[in-house]
């Protein structure tokens, strides 16, 4: 048996023919010979390498063309993105600077436009209509993170500060004393009969442990005083916050007329609430006496105390550094006690929200409106005056703005913000705030014009001088960039008296 036959039997292949040599090509047979024998190079690999194709210019051109076709969309989008990023980076500093007043070359031209509040809040009718959803940006510089803004709709206290707490306590005493003065002249009882009571509402009576007046809880004549008529409640059995006094009452002819005249003389006409500018009228800052403010307090007392020759009776309750949320907290915690029913509430707040917290114009506006709505909620029939935010001095001449073509307002240029930084409080932003102040005041005026019982008082009439080419702050009326001096308060008080006569003409 041949070797090939043995292989066939081993693997069961009896159809194979030829020899083993037929399965492997001879080393001496060339590829040409195999082609002649009918062997296909594609089916049977050659033992010799094939030549590589030559890369011609056409090949390179086709490759480049393919690349362009495949990636042309990505290239176009990438180019567009690069241009957009470049524009954004270029415009970002100028936009932010123009809001602040002028680090950019032409920012001062658009500062008033950038400070404009786009959303209209003039139709707000209650505190429940105020929301944060429409706020465009929280911070004055245009973003939402680089400021210390508080929620303008939420009351915020500073009870961690001892000075603040002491001044808040003093304000509660002022409010409570005003209420007690009305009780004293409207009630048939002689308050001197009550143990512990001293004229002038001395601290010994207020600070008794069993007395909750100082915390403005029982002081509201609510649950435990007027309505429940508890037998052991000294304030319950004969106090009426709205007494009806008849002629001849009190046992003598004309006694009621006498008491009525006394009530008219001691009735509270106006309550001023606000920040450090309001606290100036109390002669203090953070609750501590300030010699320069003593004369301001004396002028205020003479102007707003009838017993001292004033035309109106008024009290002032302010705390230095307060924002609108701080004032809101104070009103909700003792400075608006039950029985405090002035004819007019005079609100002045907002500059600290803007210059110390760095809040945007819209956030500052919301905070002020929230205070207004709180008073309206607790005193539906109250008359409210919103005082404009006073201008801030930013250069030695008091220049506030230029008047451009077509009377267009133009903010200060960088070289005009020349007030030395050491003359500005380090707690305040050293930027031009006038465009922002104008924007906020415009919105407050619009709001007041649409609501009965709410008035807007524009203090620019007192503190701003308009010339042909520009507007100037009257620097002779300012003690520092923010606070009026004695002359400023005198002129301001006179303007306030005129406004009160206008508001209360039917009551006087």
Structure description:
The protein is of the alpha/beta class. The chain is 38% helix and 8% strand. It contains 15 helices and 11 strands. The chain has helices at 3-11, 31-36, 57-100, 107-114, 162-186, 203-206, 255-266, 276-279, 291-303, 324-332, 351-355, 361-378, 434-449, 460-463, 486-503; strands spanning 270-274, 284-285, 288-289, 314-318, 344-348, 383-387, 399-403, 409-410, 454-457, 464-466, 470-473. The strands form 3 sheets. It has a 5-stranded parallel sheet, sandwiched between helices. Strands 8-7-11-10 form a 4-stranded antiparallel sheet. It has a two-stranded antiparallel sheet with strand order 2-3. The chain is elongated, with a radius of gyration of 42 Å. Residues 28-37, 92-105, 191-255 and 259-263 have low confidence and may be disordered.
Mean pLDDT: 76
How do the strands line up in the largest sheet? Answer: 4-1-5-6-9
Number of strands: 11
Strand content: 5-15%
Biggest sheet details? 5 strands, parallel
Secondary-structure content class: alpha/beta
Helix content: 25-40%
Q: Report, as a whole number of angstroms, the end-to-end distance.
A: 145 Å
H/E series: HHHHHHHEHEEHEHEHHEEEHEHEEH
Shape: elongated
User: Number of DSSP helices?
Assistant: 15
**Uncertain runs:** 28-37, 92-105, 191-255, 259-263
The whole-angstrom Rg is: 42 Å
Question: What's the gist of this structure?
Answer:
The protein is of the alpha/beta class. 38% of the residues lie in helices and 8% in strands. The protein has a five-stranded parallel β-sheet with strand order 4-1-5-6-9, with helices on both faces.
